[in-house]
Amino acid sequence: MQDQTPSIKPDRPLYQVVIDTIVDRIASGALQPGAMLPSETQLGAELGVSQGTARKALIDLEQRGLVQRAQGRGTFVRIQTPESALFNFFRLRGRDGDRPTPVLQHQEMRQRAATEIETKTLHNAPKQVFEIKRLRALPGKDRVHEIVCVPCTLFPGLKDRAPLPNTLYVVYQQAYSCIVVRAEEQMRPLAADAATARALGIAQGESILRIDRVAYDALDRAVERRTSFIHATEHSYDVTLR
Amino acid sequence: MQDQTPSIKPDRPLYQVVIDTIVDRIASGALQPGAMLPSETQLGAELGVSQGTARKALIDLEQRGLVQRAQGRGTFVRIQTPESALFNFFRLRGRDGDRPTPVLQHQEMRQRAATEIETKTLHNAPKQVFEIKRLRALPGKDRVHEIVCVPCTLFPGLKDRAPLPNTLYVVYQQAYSCIVVRAEEQMRPLAADAATARALGIAQGESILRIDRVAYDALDRAVERRTSFIHATEHSYDVTLR
DNA sequence: TATAAGAAGTCTTATACAAGACTAGTTCAT
DNA sequence: ATGAACTAGTCTTGTATAAGACTTCTTATA
Description:
Two copies of one chain form a homodimer. The first copy, chain A, is α+β, with helices and mostly antiparallel strands. Chain A has helices at residues 14-28, 40-47, 51-63, 82-89, 116-121, 168-176, 194-200, and strands spanning 67-70, 74-77, 92-93, 103-113, 128-137, 143-151, 180-191, 207-217, 222-231, 236-241. A six-stranded antiparallel sheet of chain A has the order 4-5-6-9-8-7. In chain A, strands 1-2 form a two-stranded antiparallel ribbon. The longest helix of chain A is centred in the N-terminal third of the chain and has 15 residues, at 14-28. Chain A is elongated and about 65 Å long. Strand 7 of chain A pairs antiparallel with strand 10 (236-241) of chain B, so a sheet runs across the interface. Chain B binds a DNA duplex (30 and 30 nucleotides) through residues 13-15, 39-41, 44, 49-53, 55-56, 58, 69-75.
């Protein structure tokens, strides 16, 4: 009855079309981090929708953390700085809630075959992954030992970029247009076994926190798996539930 | 120059007025949990704004978790069920991500003077608090020992409501119109001392997870402090970062 | 039991105007 | 001549409104 027009009628609302367009442009690198987006009016004219519809799309993107907006200034692709990345995805805090600056003490990277679970959970079912092992020191005696895994297909040439900085997510965005917007974590308390105790420089059997994280980008792709072993006596891991 | 009209010109936008009106009605109990709100059109007419403005307010309230909306059905005050409360604020998950049902094994409540930090951080700077100690069992050998603290002024007569159910937040809402919408948590790994080991029924020195939580209601009041000691070998604590 | 019409709700889109931010002049004092 | 301060203009996002489409549920009817 209503399929009179076999034409270009998409079954999704117009603002969703606008959202998808912008997300594609950011993910493809056409819109670089920090770049200014077209204004609501321009964007609407460009895509054949009203300013209000373009606006609704931009607000949605802002809430998803992909862009930042300011009245009178414009809309900009959110730029991942070391500060913002640490603030959002490195949740260790000092006693007074202040944010410590982790110091990279050791780091090594290699390419290896993906494990079964990595192939199953990471984007594109990768056969090969880059594995980054590193040790980070916090003020005082606290330490973090991390094992990071990313698909080689998503981050080609990552191995040649060594030494990698403290905040990997900045590299993901700036070099690969991959913006991490969400991460799911599983935490469990643990007694340090021999290997991790040695890596962390603590006694075997000490209580540590193990965190398994899967990070997702703007396209909702699982782009990274990461396991952290945290020895925290003077710091706590802070999160907000909603 | 512009205060020609000493009248009813609030310096906040109209949609904010609508938001505050609804929040007040919910917090005062005029709108009970599960109750249907006026439609966008009705609400707009009632408060002298357009349907679109009322709609903007309702969408904001939905995102804050205060109401639930469904096209064609209407808008309803979010009802805290044992399931939703556990899903949102009890983050322990089994190996497969399935949600365990904790079993209340022991519980006791008493009224006592508030500690300095409780007076400082909780709403209304209470002098007296109710303290609830309880032990919850998970499938397998995992256990949770909790110490919950709430101001007596906010929850008068809570002591007479014993035995309290598994999910306190349902009681807060149904009996006191206090909807917990957010919680901030600090986690740290710990070796169980003698007292907590006894409470949890484990050996002293075993690794446990300590979580200090402050819960906030719809009015952004700190309504509860809670410390949990978690013995988790077969479960993990799952959160999402953004 | 199935179907259709209607009522009541939210959802989408468009338009008008207000308010903030930046720029380019212009003015005025030095 | 130079520099600071003001101002008008223009570009941006923010707020408010209205009209019609779409969804869900109920009720009447075959």
